[in-house]
Amino acid sequence: MTDTDLRLNDTPAPSLVERHPDLFAGIDPHALRAAQDLLRVSKRLLGGFADRFREHGLSPGRYSVLMTLHAAGGPLAPSVIAERIGVTRASTTGLVTGLARDGLVEYGSAGETDRRRKTVGLTEAGTALLLSILPDIFARMTALVEPLTEAECKTLQSILARIEADLGQDATSETRHD
C-alpha cells in the first residue's frame, strides 16, 4: 500500500454516522465498519494476487478468462465469457484480444451455419501457462484461510454467499477484473 492510498478502516465514516445521525439515518455504524473491513481485506487480497498474475504476464481479468475457458472444457462465445466473469462485453473483447495476441487463446467459429459468430478457446500455451501457475495460486488461496477451522470456513462461505446474493440485487454495480 502506498502513502497515497486511503485505508478504508482509517476513514472517519463510523464516527461521522454517530455524530450526524440526521444525515445518515438508518446507517448502522457497526455494519459500516464491517463493510469497510471487508473492502480493505478484499483490496489487499486482489492486490496480492494481481502481483502474482503480473509476474506471468496476466491480470486478474486475463486470469479469469483463462480459468473460465479451462473450466468450460472448450471454446465459448465472448458474450458467455463476459457473463461468467462479470464484466462487459467490451472489457471481454479487450481481454481476449490481448490473450490472443500473446498466443494464449485463439478465435474459432461458433458453427457451420454462421461463421461470423466467434468463439474463444485456449491454446496449448494458454493451458500450459494456467496449469503452471495454479499450484502457487491455489496454495496462496488456501493459506489465506489456513488459520480458520473447517466450521469457520463454512461460516465465512455462507456469509460471503449472502453478501454476494445481495450484490446481485444492485443492477448499477458491475464487478471489474481488468
Topology (SSEs and partners):
Layout: H1 13-19, H2 29-54, H3 60-72, H4 78-85, H5 89-101, E1 105-109, E2 118-122, H6 124-144, H7 150-167
Helix pairs in contact: 1-2, 4-5
Descriptors:
178 residues, mainly alpha, 6% strand, disordered N terminus
Look at the helices and sheets and give the structural class: mainly alpha
Order of helices and strands: HHHHHEEHH
Overall morphology? elongated
Mean pLDDT: 84
Widest β-sheet, arrangement of strands: 1-2
Number of helices: 7
The largest pleated sheet is described as: 2 strands, antiparallel
Low-confidence stretches: 1-6, 171-178
Number of strands: 2
Oligomer class: single chain
Provide a descriptive summary of the structure in words.
A hairpin with an 8-residue loop joins strand 1 (105-109) and strand 2 (118-122). This protein has helices at residues 13-19, 29-54, 60-72, 78-85, 89-101, 124-144, 150-167, and strands spanning 105-109, 118-122. Mean pLDDT is 84; it is low at 1-6 and 171-178. Strands 1-2 form a two-stranded antiparallel ribbon. The radius of gyration is 20 Å and the shape is elongated. The protein is mostly helical. The protein contains 7 helices and 2 strands.
